[in-house]
Amino acid sequence: MKHTSYIISIYALITSASAIILAIVWAAELAGLAPCPLCLQQRYAYYIALGLGVYGGFCALRFPIAGRGLLVVLAIIFAANAVFGIYHSGVEYGWWAGPLGCAGTGSGSGASAITSTQDLLAQLNRPFVSCERPSFRFLSLSLAGYNALASFGLSALALYGAKK
Questions:
Q1: Comparing C-alpha atoms, which of 93, 113, 101, 90 is closest to residue 35?
Q2: What is the full DSSP assignment across 92-107?
Q3: At what angle do helices 4-25 and 44-62 cross, to 10 degrees?
Q4: What is the pTM of this model?
Q5: Does a structural domain hold residue 103?
Q6: Among 45, 58, 94, 112, which residue is least crowded by beta carbons within 10 Å?
Q7: Which domain holds residue 68?
Q8: At what angle do helices 64-93 and 44-62 cross, to 10 degrees?
Q9: Tens digit of pLDDT for each residue in 135-145?
């Protein structure tokens, strides 16, 4: 029963990551907020966390030390995503320049997928979302800022679970 707190922490991480992904999907699809390239990259941490969390939940049942190690890995992933969210927020506030694909000169991705004129037209007709202009702010924070806060909180939760 000593490893119960690890399992609870792992499943709390899974639930939190799922809720964040669902909120992103809801914001993008239902509210009409199109994500920029940096927004899409920030989702990778949550996808990875879902996979590792499910694996860790099953693994921790038999190997408690593996549950602790996985929580440390998840803490590192979420800490890195928090830093990435701060970087994206800095791009939005104009503190530093973003990557070339976010500068408003083109999509920066998908060029290799163009194999016909229809693909080219679809690429050109796709709306471009600049990383420099947040599509939504609440209490002066953009979604990138809230992602940084959520990722920091999930990292702290994972570290807490690893220490228990």
A1: 101
A2: HHTSS---GGGSSSS-
A3: 160
A4: 0.76
A5: no
A6: 112
A7: 4-98+108-163
A8: 170
A9: 777 888 888 89
